[in-house]
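Re: the 360-residue chain
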Amino acid sequence: MSTEPVNVFDFEPLARAKMERSAFDYLAGGAEAEVTLRANRAAFEEIFLRPRYLVDVSQRELSTTVLGTPISFPVMLAPTAYQKLEHPEGELASARAAGAAGTIMLVSTFATYSLEQIVSVATGPLWFQLYTYRDRRTTEWLIRRAEKAGYRVLCVTIDLPVVGRRELDIRNNFTLPEGMELKNLVGAGTEELPKDVDGSALKAYDVLLESGLTWRDIDWMRTVTSMPIVIKGILTAEDARLAAQHGAVGVVVSNHGGRQLDGAPPTIEVLPEIVQEVGSEIEIYLDSGIRRGSDVLKALALGARAVLVGRPFLWGLAAEGEVGVRRVLEILREELDTALALVGKRSVAEIDASILYPLK
């Protein structure tokens, strides 16, 4: 019997076996009782597909574009922090894998390799995910560095005015290993995570990040960069409308993978209201809970342009480095291709709500 992973879930125990326990818990855990973390998966499992047959699906096309950039299929790598926790090559391995798969990687502000180091190995386009700092000079410095390095899009995360209570991390007193730096902050005087009185890194965000972030800051960012701006962390039609009004060209419907507000809704459930509000004006992407190619299909049917995956590619990274990330993306592509054929569609462009049974 083959022991090779046949779906992305198969990579999770491999990652657990290779990672230090508190690091794996940081990757796996959600906020508080993890209601939202579980709901992200459950919501996808409650959406059913309408198979259609006797359609010629012998030729299928998965490619699409995001903000005009071609990608081989509608899955991108979500911005995730501290990828050296999973593998020594961290973000470098992930960037190479994304390029090999013909898709986009979003690079986190809290990367463990610098913006410039990641660009140097990337073979595909990169977006930069920004956390906004209390020191506006640091924020501007990061934005300008990303633009100079060739990042295509500025993706501003807005759902972290304060840190969600991630109970596994609190119990583990989670902190980064000795010597692990936030490489993008070297030179800003903030590369070492500050620690609270218990010695953990959980308060780092509270110390560094701007809890007073408002839409005026988005307006300001537009004055310091020519990069298009995507807003990540949208869960309501109201905020989606404000994003469009303040010049965003896209939004990521995201609940931070269930790591922030426990009790926030699953993203796939709120996607339709956001699409109805702004879907004709800006591009809409979705993350949180994507584990199957059929999940990608469902998100596209409800109006997403593409999806972002986080934990699955990090499982692959921990298990097998760049090869593992490549394989995770290959599996999702293979599953999407199969599901596309079985609902009687020949291309991503043909996907619409007709492939779904009515939502409950």
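Residues 31 and 358 are 31 Å apart (CA to CA).
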